[in-house]
Amino acid sequence: MNIRLLSAIFFCFSLPITSMEMPVSREQEFLQAVANNDIAKVELLLFLGVNPNFFSRQDRGDFSLAIAAVNGYADMVSFLLNVNVDPALDENILCKAYSIRPQLNENPYMFFQRRDKLLKLLISHPRTNLNCKLWDGTTPLIKATQMGDFGQVYALISTGRVNAMAVDSFNKIALQYARDPNIQNVLKYFSQPTATPKRKVPEEPSPAPKKAKERKKETYYSSKEMLKNIPGYSETAFTQEPAPSVAQPQPVSRMKSIPERFSAAISSNDVNAIRQLLMAGNDVNTIVNAKSGQTVLMQAASINALPVVNELLTNGSINPNQKNIEGETALMIATRIGAGEVVYRLLQDPRVRENINLENNQGLTAFDIANEKQYGPWLPIGKMLLDVGGGIGSSAERKPISKPQIERPAISNAAYARLSSTLTRESMPLEILGFKKEDIPTQDQIRKAYRMLSLKWHPDKNPGDPEAADVFKLVSWAYNALTQTQ
Question: Which residue among 119, 192, 343, 468 is least enclosed by CB atoms within 10 Å?
Fold first, then answer.
């Protein structure tokens, strides 16, 4: 036999079976397009006649809507529901949607928005099973109650297809997990057991009609017997004449004053009402709240009402640097509560920037108030105040040191040379304690250096040595000068 023919036959039989690709049906291609979230390809395959309710495996229940729900494709689920895909083919499809997880590096806000859209689509469909069981034994209603999502609880309950009395693996119903009062009210209303209708008893034939006198007399005695059973009943109580009714005075509605109208508009963040009050010619600099003693701008800053603050600052007649009883301006009040947006808007006003270093009754500026906390929203607020203040924000940086300067002791050059050969009368206190000019020692390091030198050159340890006493005076002077500076 030809050697080439034998080698060709051997090569054909030596090929692995996995290299022979099986033909893929359109249904399998349809499910793959759903898994890839390719709506255009899904629409094309549906146009070619693919059954959207096709099952790839009966035991696993893989069909298009379940695949889209597991992957969290809300747009794909919406498209499949519009082409009449039946969600009842999978009884656990809603529970699969509750079990989705965020994708890698996905924004949490976008994930919750996508999940809520997916759940809303499935819950609103009349063929979805809303009483399925999750992996932990809870139902969708119990899971939504545990998360405190009132919107999902109300959406599930309002369908009328949810069993509110269903229990989880701990034998608890959804009402026992509710913490939100609104969710509790909704679950209590729908968790009440419905009364079973009573069985109708066949009515007896009505007796012959009685005469009018007999009927009136029987009704009178039966009513009287019923009244006697009431506790505290007295026959004379019904015979006494009723007391004449006295007309109650109607409450007179009081017109709100201008400060009260401003306070109501600020608390409700009503910019239109503020604009109308300003157009009426009211002087906002003289309007003060009787309870808090704050002006209109201070009230708006104290509740972080940015639209009202913007409207008030737009009005050029307002003074943004007014102080309350405690000596604080609107900028200090907004800084104290951490209202960064209000602080930013106030700093845009040139009148506020010019007087940014105003102090309250305690001698603190707005920067000092932000610098007290140094966390959360006060960090960017302090940076804004420091930048606008030209790098000097605190009151301590603006005030000169009022402590008296300690004079250098008059000692001989021999005392300097005995402490160190490099020291002179012009040496700095840092050099006297053994540091370099460029060093920035801490207070503990300065104290430790002073303690070592003072123990070495103390007069009690060097009796009869006047130079040691001078060195001790020099070391004490250097320590006092450094600690006073710090």
Answer: 192
Burial 137-160 (b: 16+ CB within 10 A, else e): ebbbbbbbbeeebbebbebbbeee
d(CA 216, CA 232): 26
Cβ proximity of 259 and 289 under 8 Å: yes
181-197 residues labelled b (16+ CB within 10 A) or e (exposed): eebeebbeebeeeeeee
Place of tokens 């036999």: 1
Domain count across the chain: 3
N residues, the chain: 486
Q: Structure tokens of 357? A: 């270093």
Give which of 265, 247, 245, 269 is closest to 256, Cα–Cα: 265
Encode 240-253: b = buried (16+ Cβ within 10 Å), e = exposed. Answer: eeeeeeeeeeeeee
Q: How far apart are CA 64 and CA 26, in angstroms?
A: 13
197 pLDDT higher than 50: no
> What does pTM read for this prediction?
0.38
Radius of gyration of the chain (CA): 43
CB-based contact 331:300 (threshold 8 Å): no
Question: In the Cβ-directed half-sphere of 191, how many Cα atoms lie within 13 Å?
Answer: 20
Whether residues 430 and 289 share a domain: the answer is no
Residue 373: both structure tokens together: 């906390």
Q: Do 443 and 385 share a domain, yes or no?
A: no
Beta bridge partners of 295: 288
Angle CA(366)–CA(370)–CA(375) in degrees, nearest 5? 170
How many beta carbons lie within 10 A of that of residue 57, not counting itself?
8
pLDDT in tens, 369-425: 888 776 666 777 888 888 776 544 444 444 443 344 567 888 888 888 888 888 887
Distance CA 125, CA 399 (A): 71
First to last CA, the chain: 105
Which range of residues forms the domain containing residue 134?
26-190
Tokens of 356: 């940014």
Q: In sequence order, what are the beta bridge partners of 326?
A: none
Same domain, 365 and 431: no
Based on the fold, state whether residues 394 and 464 are members of the same structural domain: no
From CA 155, how far away is CA 94, in angstroms rounded?
13
At 71-128, the pLDDT tens digits run 888 888 888 888 888 888 888 888 888 878 787 777 776 777 888 888 888 888 888 8
For residue 435, report the phi and psi dihedrals to the nearest 5 degrees. -95, 170
Q: Which residues sit opposite 288 in a β-bridge?
A: 295
